[in-house]
Design brief:
six-stranded antiparallel β-sheet, Jelly Rolls, about 325 residues, ten-stranded antiparallel β-sheet, 4 helices, mainly beta, single chain
């Protein structure tokens, strides 16, 4: 089994802070907003820091050794992107296009697992407009208090954000974001902030944002399930057309099977050991890796929280849970 341990790429943001230090990342400034922890995108890429592929970027390996990932077309891009976001301040009110609307190869459907949040933290999620005309009028009139829908948020919450959803993280939220590998964002509103680097407000894309926003807003229905596998509690947080997400609460030795060509792992708390047929890896909070399917069996041990994501197979049966297969 090949395990690719990844070095994140850190991005300064106008709304960023210093909370990513708790993941053992060396921050270059006091306003780091994003750690791209599993990334193979033109705007950010992770570097492999172990094994035979040490020093290569994830993009290089994906392009040069497609067979390691189960095979893909020559021009196909790595489909997923995982970030950790530190919203020291509110993010802009924004929306993302779907696959057909995007100028990239992917749209931007995403999800948030809340790693931490201050007592008064909130999300901007959805809107109150009944139709597109009302949405346009309220945006033009800057009736943000009337338009914006906010939700209180706390550690452990999970949100699915399909393309077309009006949204933003609020100040005081630390989140793991699992999404399609796209960086296309249309901003409605940025709280009239001035970027210290340019001494100007950041550009808005209101026309484009209105065009791709779903109206009226409806919350997606999540069919979450929880199972016990040996000494691990496994929660299926999401099965969507683009990706599937599981949370593993490891509380001792547990045996697993891998049925997908590759899976993305993010250790969000504690310490674990991963053992395959010939190697043991010692992993801690802030470590991120991809497991390739050279071997079907592995174990996890220790005490920690791990997020696992993978591309949802076209023929996926939502009643199946691959980890529990014998």
């Amino acid at each position: 089994m090949t395990v690719l341990i990844l070095q994140p790429e850190l991005h300064d943001k106008i709304w960023g802070g210093t909370q990513l230090k708790q993941f053992n990342y060396e921050l270059p400034s006091d306003h780091v907003g994003e750690a791209w922890v599993v990334a193979a995108h033109k705007n950010g890429v992770s570097t492999i820091i172990n094994g035979r592929y040490q020093g290569q970027t994830l993009t290089q390996l994906w392009n040069e050794r497609p067979e390691l990932f189960g095979g893909h077309d020559a021009n196909e891009e790595f489909p997923l992107l995982v970030k950790i976001l530190d919203a020291h301040d509110n993010l802009s009110i924004q929306v993302h296009p779907n696959d057909k609307q995007s100028s990239e190869n992917f749209g931007k459907t995403e999800s948030w697992y809340i790693l931490d949040a201050t007592a008064d933290a909130k999300l901007f999620y959805g809107h109150h407009a009944k139709n597109r005309e009302e949405l346009t009028q309220q945006v033009d009139d800057k009736q943000w208090d009337k338009l914006l829908r906010t939700l209180p948020v706390q550690k452990g919450d999970f949100f699915y954000v399909p393309a077309g959803t009006f949204h933003a993280l609020g100040a005081g939220v630390l989140a793991l974001e699992i999404q399609q590998s796209s960086d296309t964002t249309y901003r409605f509103y940025d709280f009239d902030r001035v970027d210290a680097k340019t001494n100007k407000v950041r550009p808005l894309q209101i026309k484009e944002a209105i065009a791709v926003t779903k109206v009226p807003h409806t919350d997606p229905i999540l069919n979450q399930r929880t199972y016990v596998k040996d000494n691990t509690i496994l929660t299926r947080l999401l099965t969507s057309p683009k990706f599937t997400i599981d949370k593993l609460s490891v509380r001792g030795l547990s045996h697993f099977n891998q049925h997908h060509p590759y899976e993305l792992f993010n250790v969000i708390d504690g310490e674990i050991t991963l053992t395959d047929s010939d190697t043991t890896y010692y992993l801690k909070k802030g470590d991120n890796f991809i497991m390739l399917k050279d071997s079907a069996n592995y174990t996890l041990d220790g005490h920690g929280e791990v997020m696992v994501s993978f591309v949802t197979p076209n023929s996926y049966n939502q009643q199946e849970l691959a980890y529990l297969d014998n």
